[in-house]
From TrEMBL:
Protein name: EAL domain-containing protein
EAL domain residues: 23-278
Lineage, highest ranks first: Bacteria, Bacillati, Cyanobacteriota, Cyanophyceae, Pseudanabaenales
Complete-protein stretch covered: 294 to 573 of 573
Domain of life: Bacteria
Swiss-Prot/TrEMBL keywords: Phosphoprotein
């Protein structure tokens, strides 16, 4: 673990040297943003393909910058990753999401489950992910079944043994685990059966042309098949058209998210959609 730490430090400084002044400015103000809780959580509904109803949401970070307005995660997540602030940021988000779930529960809103994105840095042995998740669950008192953690294939492959042990500890706590952007990493499929996970998320790049590109269609069907034969749920990302929705429904995909149903929404708007019972 020590050697690994030294290597990542080298990467980290090398990367910083080639960064733009915009990067440096963001890095400086990200510290302040975390102190002032400027990172907000938006919720993108997850929808059952069978019923067309909301079954949950993915929590997505938005930086409400006092001068620059809303900054998207593609801009600041890489900054957070390279400065190590991603750990604090994710912890804030995890806490806010669980607090919000408790509020929704007190309002009698059935929000299903909420998925939170994690970074590879959480899966380094010294970063206490298990303890952090256990603490958040204990302090907010929410049922762990309502929380899902998303991680990419790349994260799993960086430290296979350790990650498998950590994921199975997380599952023992009762939280669910999903592999994000499935199919875009270069994970070995043979490992998949050993990973204690509950769901695969098909990346948007395979969904985009699924109704026109034979190869994309084949890949989606293979992922759905693979997931189901391993007793995992499948979620399609980035569904934008009725045709994509129908294709996925016809082929037994379980859930989807995408602009067809809704963009990521501020808390109050997501809550309103839930209470209105919006469905497709
Ligand atoms: P992701 O985890 O793959 O999240 C899905 C992204 O696809 C989101 O972008 C979402 O807004 C977008 N999306 C959803 N439906 C559609 C659609 O129909 N069409 C199109 N074109 N896009 C769609 P977003 O919110 O900009 O987030 C980008 C990435 O930033 C996320 O990709 C995730 O990797 C990262 N990210 C966001 N929030 C967090 C966070 O709290 N923690 C960490 N570690 N990463 C985060
Ligand atoms: Ca995700
Ligand atoms: Ca994704
Ligand atoms: Ca993606």
């Amino acid at each position: 673990a020590k050697t690994h730490g030294r290597n990542s430090y080298k990467l980290y400084t090398a990367d910083l040297n080639v960064q733009s002044s915009e990067f440096m400015a963001l890095a400086n103000s990200l510290h302040r943003a975390l102190d002032r809780h400027e990172i907000r959580v938006f919720y993108q509904p997850l929808v059952s393909l069978q019923t067309g109803k909301i079954v949950g949401a993915e929590a997505l970070a938005r930086w409400q910058h006092p001068d620059l307005g809303i900054i998207m995660p593609n801009k600041f997540i890489p900054v957070a990753e390279q400065t190590g602030l991603i750990l604090r940021l994710s912890e804030q988000i995890l806490f806010e999401v669980c607090e919000q779930m408790r509020i929704w529960e007190s309002m009698g809103l059935d929000y299903g489950w909420i998925a939170v994105n994690l970074s590879g840095q959480h899966f380094q042995p010294d970063n206490n992910l298990l303890e952090i998740v256990a603490k958040v669950l204990k302090e907010t008192g929410i049922d762990p079944l309502h929380l899902e953690l998303e991680l990419t294939e790349g994260i799993i492959m960086q430290n296979v043994e350790f990650t498998i042990a950590l994921l199975s500890d997380l599952q023992d706590l009762g939280v669910k685990v999903a592999i994000d952007d499935f199919g875009t990493g270069y994970s070995s499929l043979s490992y998949l059966k050993h990973f204690p996970v509950n769901a695969l998320k098909i990346d948007r790049c395979f969904i985009q042309d699924v109704t026109s590109d034979r190869h994309d269609a084949t890949i989606c069907l293979a992922i759905i098949d693979l997931a189901h034969s391993l007793a995992l749920e499948v979620i399609a990302e980035g569904v934008e058209t009725q045709e994509q929705f129908q294709f996925l429904k016809d082929h037994g995909c379980d859930h989807m998210q995408g602009y067809l149903f809704s963009q990521p929404l501020p808390t109050a708007e997501f809550a309103k959609m839930l209470s209105d019972g919006k469905s497709l």
